[in-house]
Write a structure and sequence with these properties.
The chain has 427 residues and is α/β, with parallel strands linked by helices. The chain contains 16 helices and 20 strands.
């Protein structure tokens, strides 16, 4: 059997001999029943039937300063199918409302004008008030109190001073927050770096509940929910998208109730349970643009981790044409005595001393403690990957042959074509 795996822009073909013991774990979003509604109609219908609250137009009545938190350039949110309808609904309730689109960059770099046009279109960028959040600008932050974790909640003053705070977003699986969307618009979206670092602390990342698809007892999610409540996030419009980044489902309403409904819907289609723990697990990071660096590719690797038995061998198929993706991430893995030594060091770091990139190399070291990893990546950075503790290969079939020599040709193989779109439930 030949399986086409996402890799960079062109993909890579995995050849599986019929004598091998393998199974394929993938999201069923592509096979869900097709709606007769267009993307716009799905969003408008959700907004017309909000969950847990009144319509946005009713909430906007009498409000002067309205803020819509919008996702940034790193998220494939189809904002062109969401923001125009949110603007229309707000102005229906308050014709003269002063509306700000606040771009939720979280810990990312600023979104450029060109990227804003790509997200919203020329008309919205030319005619609406848009502010790009900067998590490092402490003068732009307002202290709203203390989160359940003990970390301070410092958010953008524009959001803090709004008469009505709402947000757009999309829901996908997330490798330590459970799912994206909803409350994440506030934390990390428009929070200060101090708050983000506190939320992503070593103790929280170490929790067994801080995993893909888990919300209950997840300490990271708990802090995010509290942040949304403290910021008075009143209404969200969130969508579920398919592999082509098209809207296939939409929810709208209260930040808690609408998000929960969206997560329940997605869970039906994204969850996959292996027949048994794999000796060899092959995963990807969904191809371009998500597999441009090793930092981002930790996400797809956690799917292989979940599918594998302890000591299983993982194959990560990600081009990583931009290299490591984070200097702190690179240096921590390169310079550590061992993954276990690095983990021991991380777990000693107090919450208020969390370092940028720490959560990413904490998860990576967790994986490397229990698994050998073979990276299928571009030639340019294979030497760097080996410095960081990985084996490398030029092709997924070469990597599989290496793995079979080590694990035996009777090894059970789990193939995860898109590691960032599937929630692998441990068998």
């Amino acid at each position: 059997m030949d399986i086409r795996l996402p890799y960079s822009r062109d993909g890579m073909t995995l050849h599986l001999d019929d004598t091998l013991d393998y199974e394929i774990l993938e999201s069923q979003i592509q096979s869900m029943p097709k709606s007769s509604q267009t993307e716009d109609e799905l969003v408008m219908d959700a907004m017309a039937h909000p969950i847990g609250t009144e319509r946005l137009s009713s909430l906007a009545a009498g409000k002067q300063h309205v803020v819509i938190i919008c996702s940034d350039h790193t998220r494939p949110v189809p904002s062109r199918h969401i923001i125009p309808f949110m603007l229309r609904e707000i102005r229906k309730g308050s014709q003269d409302a002063d509306i700000t689109l606040l771009i939720a960059t979280g810990f990312h770099r600023a979104t450029t004008r060109e990227e804003l046009i790509g997200k919203f279109g020329e008309e919205i960028v030319a005619n609406e008030k848009i502010v790009v959040h900067d998590s490092s600008d402490m003068d732009a932050m307002e202290n709203l109190g203390v989160l359940p974790s003990g970390a301070p909640l410092l958010i953008n003053k524009i959001a803090a001073h709004a008469d009505l705070l709402v947000s757009e977003g999309f829901i996908e699986t997330h490798f330590f927050a459970g799912f994206s969307g909803g409350r994440k618009s506030v934390l990390p979206g428009v929070s200060s770096r101090v708050t983000v670092l506190g939320n992503h602390c070593a103790a929280f990342i170490d929790s067994p509940y801080s995993r893909t698809g888990i919300l209950e007892n997840n300490p990271i999610h708990k802090d995010m929910v509290a942040a949304a409540k403290m910021a008075k996030l009143a209404f969200i419009v969130n969508v579920v998208i398919d592999a082509d980044k098209k809207v296939v489902h939409a929810v709208a309403g209260s930040a808690a109730d609408a998000h929960a409904a969206g997560c329940r819907f997605l869970r039906q289609y994204c969850q996959a349970t292996p027949k048994k723990p794999a000796d060899i697990a092959i995963s990807t990071n969904g191809g371009y643009p998500l597999d441009q660096n090793m930092y981002q590719s930790v996400k797809g690797m956690t799917a292989a981790e979940a599918a594998s038995k302890d000591g299983g061998l993982l194959i990560m198929v990600a081009e990583c044409g931009d290299g490591h993706g984070g200097e702190g991430f690179y240096q921590a893995l390169k310079n550590c005595e061992s993954p276990q030594a690095l983990m021991d060091e991380i777990l000693k770091v107090p919450q208020d001393e969390t370092k940028p990139d720490q959560w990413e190399y904490q998860i990576q070291s967790r994986i490397l403690i229990h698994h050998k990893v073979i990276y299928v990546m571009c030639e340019k950075y294979r030497g760097m990957a080996r410095e960081m503790g990985f084996e490398t290969a030029a092709d997924v079939n070469e990597a599989l042959e290496k793995a079979l020599k080590e694990k035996g040709r009777d090894a059970h193989i789990a193939v995860i074509p898109d590691g960032v779109s599937v929630m692998v439930k441990k068998p």
